[in-house]
Every structure is written in structure tokens, then in C-alpha cells.
Description:
Elements: H1 17-24, E1 29-33, E2 55-59, E3 63-72, E4 85-92, E5 97-102, E6 115-123, E7 127-134
Antiparallel strand pairs: 1-2, 3-4, 3-6, 4-5, 6-7
Amino acid sequence: MSARLPTRAPERTAETAPFWDACAGGRLVLPRCDRCHELVWYPRRFCPFCASTSLSWVELSGRGTIYSATVIRQGQGPYRGVGPYCLAYVELDEGPRMLTNIVGVDPTRVEIGQRVRVQFDPAGDDDALPRFAPDT
């Protein structure tokens, strides 16, 4: 199993508050462009694909596939002394790729193409961070 990773409350902005509020409630949401219908990751006030400012928040399945991964053996900052752990890009079933941690599995056993699902790790008093675990 992976080491217990550090968590801290996310910094909310007007653009990211709906995302972090949903995470705190155990849901994964992203803005979708009302014009071109692309999902927007990382949340922002405009669509990076067509520049529209008309966005609507949608709930996602929370499932995806590991697109790329690496094992960190010696972390820095708040991750100093924690290791090994897995840092990965997860391609969500709905399309966007999120940089995240893979948890709940020995980091050396993580594989490209492996199916994963979101889990929410407590962070701060009332927040949660999305991380991904094997989808068994």
C-alpha cells in the first residue's frame, strides 16, 4: 500500500469554489462549455477551447484510466519523508486528464491503462482532495 499522503485545505477562488465544494461533498464536477461542449480542467471562467464564458457545472462518473504515472521515492516540501508514492495523470472517462495521486495500492504496482475511481481524502476541516484508487 502507498504511504499516507499529506493533505491541506485547497485555496478556493471564485473560479474553483464549485469544484472544491463538490469534492467536500464527495462528488467530482467540472465546468462544461455551453458553446462547444468541452469539459474544462482546471476550472476557470472561460472555455480554453473556444473562449466562451458560458459554462455549466456537470457531475462526472469519477472513473478513468491511468494515462501516465511515476513513482516518487523522495518527496519535497510537505511530501518530504513520505514515499514512495504515485503521481499520475488519470484520463477521466469523460475526457479530461487530471494530475493526481494513485492511492490504495503499492505504487510500484500501478500500471498504464489501469482502471481507477475517485476517492476523496479529507483535507483541512471541511475539505477533500480527489485522489484515485484501483477500480475493483
